[in-house]
Structure formats: structure tokens, C-alpha cells
Specification:
Elements lengths: L2 E14 L2 E14 L3 E5 L6 H9 L7 E4 L4 E4 L2 E2 L5 H10 L1 E4 L3 H4 L6 H13 L3 H14 L5 H4 L9 H14 L4 E5 L7 H18 L2 E6 L2 H4 L5 E6 L2 E7 H6 L4 H8 L40 H5 L4 E4 L3 E4 L10 H8 L1
Parallel strand pairs: 3-9, 3-10, 7-8, 8-9
Antiparallel strand pairs: 1-2, 1-4, 1-5, 5-6, 10-11, 11-13, 12-13
The structure holds iron/sulfur cluster (SF4).
Iron/sulfur cluster binds next to loops.
Amino acid sequence: SKKILGVRNLHVSFKTYAGVVQAVRGVDFYLEKGETLAIVGESGCGKTVTVKTIMGLLPKEQSIVSGEGVEVNFHNKNLLNLSENEMAEIRGNHISMIFQDPMTSLNPTMKIGNQIAESIVIHENKSEEEAKKIALNILELVNIPNAKERINQYPFELSGGMRQRIMIGIALACDPEILIADEPTTALDVTIQAQIMDLIKKLQDKKNTGVILVTHDLGVVASVADRIQVMYAGEVVERGTTNEIFYSPKHPYTFALLESIPKLSDHKQKELYSLVGTPPDLTNPPKGCPFAARCKYAMKICRVKHPEITSFGETQESSCWLHHEKADLSDVSEILLK
Ligand code: SF4
């Protein structure tokens, strides 16, 4: 099989002063070699917690990972059972991650070239001289102009776009099988965003890297994702190929995400999702559909019973009563008429 990562029945909770927050509630998915999976949803939906769990980056004292048969399977190893040292080895060589703000991941007091070289020496046992040469290659690979001069500059001397390029270069230097990018372009302006996505795509094709792209913005992933999974309130509410999600969405929350994509003709971005209300309190998640309080299609069943999954063909699934055979649609019109 081409599957390189499999996440099964993942639940993650956090202890907070307000109580135990059930941030991720039964998430399943897989990633194949060379493909791009986008995980999309608004902040607090559990997308970042999910990928941090894969990377072993959750704070151990406050977080609880659970679930019957829960697993993060990478080459037949359950990453959840690895020691901190073993996870560090995975992060250095097999699964890399980039974040929203490269300024927080780069050391402000260290020259760019030295930083790249250092990360390579640590991960790959190269001599310092070899590492410097590779660092120069990386800058060229990620299209940094005047690489020979840039290598001696500090992070603050570079633009946000260049810093993110460098982070991508560092993340891909060890030829990881998986790159996880968490809101990699959110801090950047629209033109630069497109260039960064383009760069990720090019390098991914070259190295056949599997990419997990985490974002709140469906628009960003349209041209790069193979598959999309939409998360809401700690659950995957819909998944499908990029075409299915864009041209034949099935879940009302996906409708809202699509509506919120800024169009070139719009002068200002629409109010987030044009949705009323807020996500549910995850210290006490609703018994029925987590989206019911904001859903204009909500039926009686939605408030009392958690939605079952409806499949549409081989690749698309929606966790919603709307298309389910058990749904009583007479109820929908009643509510929409109100
Ligand atoms: Fe809306 Fe009901 Fe579907 Fe939830 S299950 S998204 S409330 S129609």
C-alpha cells in the first residue's frame, strides 16, 4: 500500500482551569506517499492539536491522548508509544514540520547559513564544511536570491516570505517522508502565499514527500491539495477529494467555509463563514451534532443524536443527518421557514 501514515480513533483532551477540554474527538485519517492532505477548519477545531500529536509535540503534563485502539501508525510503529528520544529521531529524519511564523522557529541571534548548517549537522552527522555547502544549496533550492550573501545575514534582515522559504528548506533538507505545514502562509500577503504554496508543491513533487497542510482557509489549498478533510469542534465532519469538496460539498459547515473564501471581486473578505454563533464548549460537547447550534438545516434529530456517516462514492464522506437515509427532511423545511 502507498499509505505512509495512519491515524486511528484519536482523542486528545486538555486539563484547563475551566475543566477538561475534549479538543480532538475520534479523528481518523491516512496519508499516502507523495500526496497532499489538507486539514481545514477554524481555530479551535482540533487541527493543530491533531498534527502536534503526530509529532509528539503536545505538553505531556496537561494533555491526555486516548481512544479505543488509538494509533498513529508510521511504518508499522505506533508513534504514541515511542520515547521522547525516538520521537526526536522521527522528527529530525522522517516527519518535518513548519509553522505559521518562521520568526519564532528561527534563532534571531544566529546567521541564516549557520542555522541551516547546524540543523543538518545535528540530524545527519555531516561535517561543518559539508553542512555549509548544503546550506548554500538549500537557499538556492528555495529560490533565495544572492544566496552567498544571504547566508551571512540574520533572520530580521530577510522578508517574511524568505524566512518561510528557509524554514521549508530546513524542513526538507533531511528528505523527510512527511512534511506537516501548519498555516504556513497565514502571516504572509496573498502573492507571497501563492509563491510559498508553489514552492512546497515543487519540492514535494521532486522528492515525493507526503504533505499534511493545516489551514483555516480553504482557498489556500484549492490548487495544491489532493484530498481535504474538514474539521469542526474536534471532529472530522466531511472528507473528500479536492474536487468533491469544492464542487459537491455535502456538509453545511463545508458550505460555510466555501462561502467565506475571498473572491477577487470582493472588496473585503466576508465576515467569517457568515455564520452566526460560536463553536460548542468542548468541556461539555453536545450530545447531538456539534454544528447544530449554527446550522440552518438543523433537524430535531440533530440535537439529540450524533450524526452518522454518509458515504458518497469511494472517497467522500459526511458526518451529517442531512443526506442520511434516517433523516426526516420534513423537519428541515419547518425550521428554514421559521
Ligand atoms: Fe446540520 Fe444536522 Fe447536518 Fe449537523 S447533522 S450539520 S445540524 S443538518
